[in-house]
Amino acid sequence: MAKLLEINNLHTYFETKRGLIKAVNGVSLSIEEGHTLGVVGESGSGKSQTAMSILKLFEKNQKIYDGEIKFQGKVISNYNAKEMSKVRGNDISMIFQEPMTSLNPIFTVNRQISEVLMLHQGMSKKEAEQHSIEMLKAVKIANPEQVNKSYPFQLSGGMRQRVMIAMALACKPKLLIADEPTTALDVTIQAQILYLMNELKREMGTSIMFITHDLGVINQMADDVAVMYCGQVVETAPVDKIFQDSEHIHPYTEGLLTSIPRLNTDRSSKLEVIPGAVPHPLNLPKGCKFAPRCKYATAECRENEPELKEVSPGHAIRCFHPVKRGKQ
Ligand SMILES: Nc1ncnc2c1ncn2[C@@H]1O[C@H](COP(=O)(O)OP(=O)(O)OP(=O)(O)O)[C@@H](O)[C@H]1O
Ligand code: SF4
Ligand SMILES: [Mg+2]
Questions:
Q1: Ligand positioned closest to the Cα atom of 322
Q2: Which of 66, 96, 97, 195 has its CA 20 to 30 A from that of 178?
Q3: Taxonomically, which superkingdom (predicted)?
Q4: For ligand 1, what atom is nearest to the CA of residue 231?
Q5: Of the ligands numbered here, which is closest to the C-alpha atom of 40?
């Protein structure tokens, strides 16, 4: 299958008074056409900054230091601001964790969705208004005419998130980046939104980069997984390999899997949580970044940094001693 997005050895840093913060520190991953890639990892692992790098939504003190991002074969990481704004509007859109940060509080839903439609699909104001209602129907809003006339503050969190999805899909993107799109919502609404995103992906063939803390959600949503730790991808594979089939697994992924209550069916067994904390970004360990928390760490791990290496087709692990499945 063709690759829609390819990130190779990406380094995105923040320059701060206290030193360089290596938010993205050698990320390599790819997304196939029509696939969902789940990106998972603890807080601070660089998930959002990888997404921001794709769209070049950077702070003033932030830039790409090394590596490249290819979209449909073109190196977009070299694009200037004007070229990038075309990519953002037409090819790649993003849903943020908190919809109020991207919905404008002073405009109605209609105005916000219509603007995208007029700009990117060349519709007239009237056509856009009608289509905006259609988009709201597509994201299963029960009273689309009324919601279309509403301001964001008049809507519930779940409705706002649906409006965000409608807006993100209005330009018919080839890639939708969803950064923890449901963490602020309650469990029932979360399930509905996830179902809806899967349905839209099937109908429109959109590829999705789905960012979450929750491997359980990845299991439900994704075709492929990238596990991140300290600004790097430590393991990437098709979902089935990560959850059951692979012969080997990264020690960090093993830790994440044993911390999922839903997958841990033996209720008498104690839920294992990865000990220790993510290192401070200004004080990263030498060698493997996971070594201080890894129960399999050796002297080699503390001295040298492992590379992301393919262990079987489509499955790569960044570790000197991947864990053999079923063996503790
Ligand atoms: N504006 C900023 N200035 C300096 N460092 C930043 C800034 N934003 C993020 N970082 C750092 O970049 C690293 C990666 O952050 P990022 O937001 O990508 O993590 P994340 O995996 O998305 O975490 P979370 O799950 O909490 O959203 C962290 O060490 C963070 O402290
Ligand atoms: S390289 Fe060593 S420390 Fe790092 S994850 Fe593998 S076994 Fe653990
Ligand atoms: Mg984040």
A1: 2
A2: 66
A3: Bacteria
A4: 14
A5: 1
